[in-house]
Amino acid sequence: MEFLSAALLGLLLASILPLFFFFSFRDGIKHDGDNNTTTVIDSKIPSGNDVRHAESSDDFDVIVVGAGVAGAALAYTLAKDGRKVHVIERDLSEPERIVGELLQPGGYLKLIELGLEDSLKGIDAQQVFGYALFKDGNHTRLAYPLDKFDSNISGRSFHNGRFIQRLRQKAAALSNVKLEQGTVTSIVEEDGNVKGVQYKTKNGQELTSYAPLTIVCDGGFSNLRRNLCKPQIDIPSCFVGLVLENCKLPLENHGHVVLADPSPILLYRISSTEIRCLVDIPGQKVPSVANGDMARYLKTVVAPQLPPELQTAFIASVENGNIKSTTNRSMPAAPHPTPGALLLGDAFNMRHPLTGGGMTVALADIVVLRDLLRPLSNLNDADALCNYLESFYTLRKPVASTINTLAGALYQVFCASPDPARKEMREACFDYLSLGGVFSSGPVSLLSGLNPRPLSLFCHFFAVAIYGVTRLLIPFPSPKRIWIGVRLITGAAGIIFPIIKAEGVRQMFFPATMPAYYRAPPMQ
């Protein structure tokens, strides 16, 4: 096994890395130029005789737009560091979502680092220790590499709304946090610097709040992001969500991924009595629920591909009719560096939710931002604040780019395809992960946020491709098999290189070459 591992990685490095480094320098320099272009915000406070705006009398250090997972956790974190924080959230009632329900172990460690781990208490959260991968009647167990951690360290799955409400309660309990329900309508800008936001309260009053730093984290449907980044949003698929009751998973305390046709199905427990099922449907349209097309699709196409012990509960859930859907969005982080403002969470950076990495990325970003701001006692020093925030985009890359790239690549590999090369890649990925040892723990440590190393991801991805080619060429390398092998390698490159380019080659693999003004906090 060790010999096979060494041989695969050696062949990988010898055949792929020279070409990759060429593209790294060529595309990386171009991307660097794109990232250092400053765009002035064009959102202004509306003017007119019929509109009068009151000014907030409070003196805030930070305005946080949105109180979801990212916004509420950020408000708590900055307030614990002594900042006065104004949080403006459109709707403070408990949200109902079918995503954002699985927190990877790497994200749970960040939650502990922020002092927010007790937010998972009292909401019937479930521990998750790994994944079960199903394909064509076979399955394999992929355990998180948690041997070096305490027994309470694992992933967690839960109702998203319950978790968000606990985070909001934690933030609102601090005296220097003002949590307010309101809708932010625009950003206040003066001479190219963001000074605050204009918002409408629950009662319809229009107010303006000022602070030296405004952080926008109002989710994937943010109406403010267009001023602060390049919103290049891709919608590869939709999730159809159901809740299964009165049944057990084949492997409890594990997420389940079924490599179905046309695309994956996810299952994981969100409470002691409920199992979330997410059916991925490629494209932007789903069958109609109203005319019964959705129920027929789920019963005839999806149900037969599920593990047998879940099919009865799945059909019962379909007949119950509580079917919800959401679009799956992907957007690389492409910011316009803007003095006085920052994007965070899904408003800034999204990836396909197949791997459940969104909350892990957001919490990791909050840790980076907290550490960056700690040395700054006065956020009104605009020059110093800009310098520190500029380095945020590079320092976040190891975690964010690893999880983003893996999510996008795995989704494409796991989707069914009539192409023989794509079929072989899918088979090779399942069998590679089933080998165990480093072939399993390596990719799972990347997915879980425990090993945020882009180069390790790159190596494992092409090791899967080379493993697939090796199987094709043994024992007899016929011309047809050689051709499929060539297409498998080029197809793998066609999947991962565009994702890496969008993430930023230099930021991912050569962060030391990026300008940064970060200084570690002084020793106590």
From TrEMBL:
Pfam families noted in UniProt: DAO (PF01266), SE (PF08491)
Record carries keyword Metal-binding: no
Chain ranges of the Squalene epoxidase domain: 211-483
Subcellular localization: Membrane
Record-annotated membrane-spanning stretches: 457-476, 482-500
Topological type in the membrane: Multi-pass membrane protein
Superkingdom of the organism of origin: Eukaryota
Cofactor: FAD
Pathway(s) the chain acts in: Terpene metabolism; lanosterol biosynthesis; lanosterol from farnesyl diphosphate: step 2/3
Catalytic activity line of the entry: squalene + reduced [NADPH--hemoprotein reductase] + O2 = (S)-2,3-epoxysqualene + oxidized [NADPH--hemoprotein reductase] + H2O + H(+)
Identification of the protein by name: Squalene monooxygenase
Encoding gene per record: LOC111471032
